[in-house]
Amino acid sequence: MDSRIAVGLMPLSASCADSGLQVAGVSVTDLVAEHGTPLIVYDEAHLRARCADVKHAFPDGASYAAKAFLCRSMARLVHDEGLGIDVASGGELAIALAAGVPAAALTVHGNNKSRAEIEQALVAGVSRIVIDSWDDLTRLSDLAAASATTQRVALRVNPDVAAATHRSIMTGHGASKFGVAIGGGQAATLAARVRTTPYLELTGIHVHTGSQISDLSALAGSIGAAAAVARECQVAELIVGGGLAVAYVEGDEAPGVAEWGEVAHAAARASGFVGSILAEPGRTIAAAAAITVYTIGAVKHVGNNSIMLAVDGGISDNPRPALYGSRYQPLLVRHPLLPSAVDPAVYSVVGKNCESSDTFASDVALSAEPRVGDLVFLPVTGAYTYAMSSNYNGLTRPAVIMVGSGTSSLIVRREGIDDLLRSDVFALDRAAQH
Ligand code: LLP
To answer: What does the pLDDT average to over 248-275?
Structure first.
């Protein structure tokens, strides 16, 4: 096998120059010289292309699931591309609004929305609120009546479909905490109640089966079941959630967005649903759009034939390997090609957090011999990485850059020690004053 660029894993605008990896014509080494590591680099053209793909596959409309990655620039970008935004908390709602995205483009989710979050959504005038339970309905109907505001709502149903994916990211199985069971007529009963609730207008049925799902027939099963409820309830919209898998390492098979759209439409129509079919992908749009760049700080020989490369980030900026056993394909910035068959698979890439689950990759090969000070990057880190980052071990969150048409913009600044101390209230300081 010849050395080659990992096309399916890289941002669309990635290329390999003499100086190493470039994104949209910008040298990643130069970006690191300016901003340091760990550094997350999004390819703007990739994000826009994925939004266009989604719009094409779901012509009735789509929303970006903000939980995958959200900041104001991201919110504005997806809105500019004609997508709505699905938010899952008052915080996400506030960020989208702060970006100037109109409330009419926003859908509010959550299996335990607080009164404050519901009020925030009602005052803003969001497009729809997705009801997840009887208690959610009670709170929402009280607050809508109190504000004398008619709110469009959808009902999230649970199709009892266990799609093959990591168990932590299955959401459509019977034991899931999300949605109201279709079985036993529970969803239909709740929908009927919504219909008779003043100030609420039932416009849709929502289903989300889980995430990182490559078996489209499982998605078709849950979409078909939700579509039957939507038909019975005579609502105008069926929201089919997100869930499409992406490839994380060479050899991963992942269906395309167009195929997902075809399967979703066919499943909904087969159940006799004639209204609009909307989607809300997160990973599909954001995952492969970004890479995370780290600096190798230690090269440690372990046992007979294993070499650990310790980088300057870890599960604090990407907990996915620890949470889901996710795999990544590390590559070197100065030689960003896939390894060849003769390159020895002796490397592990570990972080600097204090536990052994802090491992990004094990037994992998690299296309050149790594040294201390080398930049190594993980492709496909644009979804659920920064969004799930933490300050574990007092590590600060990375900077996030967006690169487009030969220029780069800082879209989230690197955290500093000040950020760690910002919410720390030093109560024992009082004792020292006495
Ligand atoms: N809609 C709803 C209601 C959702 O809960 C989600 C994701 C999506 C849409 C978008 O799903 P996607 O297209 O991204 O699969 N932290 C996990 C993923 C959790 C997904 C949660 N819900 C991970 O890192 O894999």
So the answer is: 96
Look up residue 4 and give its amino acid.
Answer: R
The structure tokens listed for 321 are 């390997």
Task: State residue 2 phi and psi, 5-degree precision.
Answer: -75, 155
Rounded Cα gap, residues 410 and 38, in angstroms? 14
Nearest to 127 by CA among 254, 266, 227, 276: 276
Ligand 1 atom nearest to CA at 280: 9
**Torsional sign, CA 72, 77, 80, 85:** negative
Task: Identify whether 51 is a catalytic site residue.
Answer: no
Whole-model pTM over 0.90? yes
Give percent above pLDDT 90 in the chain: 86
Q: What span, in angstroms and rounded, lies between the C-alpha atoms of 230 and 236?
A: 8
Question: What pLDDT, in 10s, does the model give residues 83-124?
Answer: 999 999 999 999 999 999 999 999 999 999 999 999 999 999
Does the structure show a pLDDT above 60 at 1?
no
CB 183 within 8 A of CB 232: no
The letter for the amino acid at 272 is G
Closest atom, ligand 1, to C-alpha of 282: 14
> When comparing pLDDT for 272 and 162, which is higher?
272
User: How far, in Å, from the CA of 43 to the mean position of ligand 1?
Assistant: 21
* Beta-ladder partners of 154: 130, 204
Identify whether the C-beta of residue 34 lies closer than 8 Å to the C-beta of residue 53: no
Alpha-carbon span 338 to 330, nearest angstrom: 9
Contact in structure between 361 and 347 (CB atoms under 8 Å): yes
The closest of 40, 5, 102, 109 to 286, measured between CA atoms, is 40
Enter the tokens of residue 44.
């703007």
